[in-house]
Every structure is written in structure tokens, then in C-alpha cells.
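Saturday, quiet lab. Running sequence design on the C-alpha cells for the scaffold JK sent over.
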């Protein structure tokens, strides 16, 4: 099973660019009754000055068909260690993704992300046992899910020589465990993220929510 993809970025000025990506997982030349498995990304980014501060803005649209990243006949979305291989929010997605980053000074910045997801179904994921046999195709199917969801993440970032610190407020889902579910979280989470980088090419990372 192979996937073809093509990506492109065009810098139409020094600080502005547009980009797109096409993923072709499965395409039916003849009429077979099977849906095509296609993904498309369209977006732009812009670096500009606001009150003499650097502001990075990016926006993208993602379109993922119902059965992309799936085995034919097995309906198994590809996962590795509970994480999706492919688009992080799964199949059957139509998303709007806006990200802003404002550099206050050489060590502090403000970041904000806003995401809208429209879904036609949950991701179909099969359970596998240790011998890679399919155990159940439908355990994770949930037909009572929210089709339209919105997420945000607002945070302060501090970057020093060996320390990265982020303090933020977010309602983004934990993708590892919710890709096949509602992808919905009402409660707002205050979180603290700390990374310490050692000189011998290793680092310590911790995130508290």
C-alpha cells in the first residue's frame, strides 16, 4: 500500500508565501463504488511588523476524505504508539487553522491558535493483537459525535539558553486517545510546559495540565 504526495511553496515576497499539499492514497479510475482517498492542504503565511514587534501569521485549510490512510477492506487508520500517522485529527475532516505568534522581546513571545473542525464521521480504527491480527473493526466507532468543534490555545512562551517555558490556556483535545471519538473538550485547561536542554544533545521535557 503506497501513498503519493506533492507539496509546493511559493514566496511571492520576502516575508510572505503560499503553500499547498496533495495526498493521493487511493483513486478509482473506473466506477467501482469505492470512494477516493484524497487529502488537500491550502495555506499562506506572513511575517510582518506590529508596533515594531515581529508577528508571524499563518492560515491553512485541510480537506481529508472519509477513508484516507486506511487499508482497503480492513478499515484500519494507521497508528503508531497510539498516535496517528497522517493528519493528527483523523479522517473525514474539513478544517480551518489560524496561528499567530507575536515576539515581545528576545526571550518572550505570545502565541495563539484557533482551530475549527468539521467532520462527517469518526475515524475508523481497528484493534490489533500482538500477532497483528485484526480483533475488532468497530469498537471505536461512535455515531453520536459533534460534527463541528472549535479549539483554541493561548500561551506565553519564554526561551532562555537551555530552558523553554510555556504557560497557557487551552481546550485542545488529547489526540492520542480521542482521534476516534468526539474530539470535543468543553473544559478549559491551564497548563505549564517545561523543557530543559542539556549540552550533550539530550533534553528533559515535562508538561502539566
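Result came back. Writing it out in full:
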Amino acid at each position: 500500500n503506497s501513498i503519493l504526495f506533492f507539496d509546493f511553496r511559493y514566496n511571492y515576497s520576502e516575508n510572505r508565501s503560499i503553500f499547498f499539499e496533495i495526498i493521493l492514497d487511493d483513486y478509482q479510475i473506473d466506477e467501482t463504488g469505492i470512494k477516493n482517498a484524497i487529502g488537500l492542504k491550502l495555506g499562506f503565511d506572513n511575517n510582518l511588523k506590529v508596533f515594531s514587534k515581529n508577528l508571524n501569521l499563518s492560515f491553512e485549510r485541510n480537506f481529508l476524505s472519509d477513508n484516507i490512510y486506511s487499508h482497503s477492506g480492513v478499515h484500519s487508520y494507521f497508528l503508531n504508539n497510539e498516535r496517528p500517522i497522517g493528519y493528527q485529527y483523523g479522517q473525514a475532516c474539513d478544517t480551518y487553522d489560524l496561528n499567530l505568534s507575536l515576539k515581545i522581546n528576545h526571550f518572550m513571545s505570545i502565541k495563539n491558535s484557533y482551530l475549527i473542525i468539521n467532520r462527517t464521521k469518526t475515524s475508523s480504527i481497528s484493534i490489533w493483537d500482538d500477532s497483528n491480527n485484526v480483533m475488532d473493526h468497530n469498537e471505536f466507532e461512535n455515531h453520536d459525535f459533534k460534527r463541528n468543534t472549535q479549539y483554541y490555545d493561548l500561551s506565553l512562551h519564554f526561551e532562555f539558553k537551555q530552558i523553554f517555558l510555556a504557560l497557557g490556556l487551552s481546550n485542545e483535545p488529547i489526540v492520542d486517545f480521542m482521534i476516534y471519538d468526539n474530539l470535543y473538550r468543553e473544559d478549559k485547561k491551564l497548563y505549564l510546559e517545561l523543557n530543559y536542554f542539556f549540552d550533550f544533545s539530550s533534553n528533559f521535557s515535562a508538561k502539566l495540565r
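Notes for JK: Residues 182 and 207 are 23 Å apart (CA to CA). The two ends are 39 Å apart (CA to CA). Ask whether to fix the surface positions before the next round.
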